[in-house]
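Anyone up for a design puzzle?
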């Protein structure tokens, strides 16, 4: 479908008959063209968009085009499914990693907003922070995070690798972990090394991690090390009333708090209605454990 759209764009650009083409696509503002390319997706920009015309080819190499990057592993894997090199010894994980590194190179240090989905490694994180120290937003979704180094370095991100990255992103303002697990130490380092952090999302994701038991490790770490947060999402979390009280006590600047699907808080808030009153008075926008999830992104639970 995208390919046909590019072919249509090419024909429009080459068609100079005013009665059929009243818009000069070559004269669109560069900012608008960059916005269009960012919406097209990383894979299609690298593999297809640059072939549309010389103007688009130049834009695809412009570092400003790569300030906001989203790399979805499942989408790229689907696009590459029939490619010969994927069936070779290279492997999909290596292809994704090399593509991400290429994008970082194209940004020339101007990368500000990075999201990646279903892939990642310590080596990739190191490659990113060594070349993108001005990063303002980082989102890891459905990435396999664990506490130790893995025998499969292309597919796993260790807590150590993540901590090293956060120690080198002093300008970070937004940090998101979706359908992933992180330790309290990761939160501590983020709070200590990213003083401008204003928004934090941590969603374990019930699809990957069954929500049984109780744990206030992450909630207490947030309360102790991220007191300046303005926006906090802890949906699908195992926190108890203890963790919630710690957050309310220390995070006085919170403007929004998402507690949806935090099952341990259902009964606790019913038993302590005064706490719900405090939540409503202290925080402008609150999503309670039983709030509707109809507006959730598919599989994201945020």
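Challenge accepted. My sequence:
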């Amino acid at each position: 479908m995208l390919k046909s759209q590019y072919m249509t764009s090419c024909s429009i650009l080459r068609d100079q008959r005013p009665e059929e083409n009243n818009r000069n696509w070559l004269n669109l503002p560069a900012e608008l063209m960059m916005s269009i390319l960012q919406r097209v997706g990383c894979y299609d920009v690298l593999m297809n968009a640059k072939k549309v015309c010389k103007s688009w080819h130049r834009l695809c190499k412009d570092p400003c085009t790569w300030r906001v990057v989203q790399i979805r592993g499942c989408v790229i894997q689907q696009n590459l499914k029939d490619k010969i090199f994927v069936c070779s010894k290279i492997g999909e994980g290596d292809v994704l990693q090399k593509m991400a590194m290429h994008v970082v190179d194209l940004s020339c240090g101007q990368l500000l907003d990075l999201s990646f989905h279903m892939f990642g490694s310590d080596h990739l994180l190191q490659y990113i922070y060594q070349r993108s120290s001005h990063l303002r937003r980082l989102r890891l979704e459905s990435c396999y995070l664990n506490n130790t180094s893995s025998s499969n370095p292309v597919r796993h991100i260790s807590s150590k690798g993540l901590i090293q990255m956060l120690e080198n992103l002093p300008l970070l303002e937004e940090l998101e972990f979706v359908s992933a697990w992180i330790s309290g130490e990761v939160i501590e380092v983020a709070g200590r090394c990213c003083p401008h952090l204003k928004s934090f999302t941590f969603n374990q994701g019930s699809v990957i991690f069954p929500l049984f038991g109780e744990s206030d490790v992450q909630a207490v770490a947030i309360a102790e090390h991220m007191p300046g947060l303005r926006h906090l999402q802890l949906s699908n979390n195992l926190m108890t009333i203890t963790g919630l009280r710690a957050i309310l006590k220390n995070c006085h600047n919170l403007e929004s708090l998402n507690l949806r699907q935090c099952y341990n808080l259902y009964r606790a808030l019913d038993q302590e209605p005064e706490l719900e009153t405090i939540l409503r008075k202290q925080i402008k926008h609150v999503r309670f454990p039983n709030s509707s999830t109809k507006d959730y992104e598919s599989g994201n639970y945020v």
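A detail worth pointing out: The longest strand covers residues 68-72.
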